[in-house]
Amino acid sequence: MTERRQPPPVALAWLTWGLLAGIYFVGYFQRVAPAVMVDELMREFQIAATLLGNLSAIFFYTYAVMQIPSGLLSDAVGPRRLATAAAVVAAVGTLLFAQADSLWLAYIARGLLGASFAVAFVACMKLAGHWFPTNRFATVTGISLLIGNLGGALAGIPLSEAVSGIGWRGAILASAGATLLLALAVWLWVRDDPSERGYASHAHPEAHYGMSAGRALKLVIMEPETWLLFLAGGLIAAPILTFAGLWGVPYLTQVHGMARSHAAGFTTAMLLGFAVGGPLLGALSDRMGRRKLPYLAATLASALLWATFLFVDGLSENALYPLFAGIGFFSGALIIGFAFSREVNHPGAAGTVGGVVNMSVLGFAAIQQSGLGWVLDRHWQGSLIEGVRIYDAAAYHAAFTWLGLSALGAVLAVALTRETYCRLRFDSAA
After folding, report:
1. DSSP SS3 for 388
2. Which of 167, 183, 274, 367 could form an SS bridge with 87, CB 3.0 to 4.6 Å?
3. Domains present along the chain, CATH in parentheses
4. 20-63, pLDDT tens digit by residue?
């Protein structure tokens, strides 16, 4: 008689998955780090808002481009090998950025960072499908968003103080060593499936059979709801990454007259709301046994809060803290979309669908960061302080209006989906 294996201990599952999620933490730190280095980067490379937006956005462009390859590779070679290699490359990219002496070299470094860290979130989702039961997938994926946003919070006030103390190059250089150590830890500890440690796997049996990259991609792109969830995730998350990840701090310093560290506290509130919203809304969706209803309600709340920010005049600092935190919290519902998209697709293409949907989050953010920089330059009134362009409230309002329209688009995309009730449709059709 074949011995019946037990599922892995919860602590072992969290430790294994958590080490790999650490790469997502570092990647999120690098993603939003330019937000507190705006003046230094503009001065260092002699650039205005459009080029700064491009320098920040190149991370997102290469990240987005790598999402589908990351998903295919995650399905083909497993998250452990993929994430370890990516972290080593990321450490090299971080070192290159810290030492860049020209704008083109900084572009290459940021592009390399985006391409390497692109695998982290997809690998986390792939690993979660093996180490945790299906009805906990949204919760675990939400925790990954929490971990990532903690990395974003580290790139707020702590990084701002580090930049003031040791300079932006020194602060970025220190993160290169941490990334390399994390790569070593993932390689030594993480395993792709509990069976490699003698435990039963939580993955669907179909996920253990090799699926060609072509078939996986075809199945995912032929599913109409993949594209609705692609749009929803990108349109709800990109405004957070655009505001908190680049333009929020200069807006608060230039329009509201805040010190940089003080302004970073407000964008950190948005990121922390985003971090908390992901796991809580994901857990709520798991507990309700519903995907569409909580996702739709959260996207609607996010759109209403963006409208409040844009169209209610005279908001005090005391009002901005909960407003930004609320926007972040409800935008964290994009985590439901990852579980949602996984349930409407074949289980053997779990990594691929994660890559496709996540591509929109970073791709739309890249477009918005660059696009808002262009809008700001179009509305610039000619003010300069120590070589740095200063934009007025009207310029920022014109730019930020696009963030509100993006959030509204997410509402429409989710409204067109069909409920899965937290079950794989593949099983339902079997």
Report:
1. strand
2. 183
3. 10-200+209-429 (1.20.1250.20)
4. 999 999 998 998 888 888 888 988 888 888 888 888 889 988 98
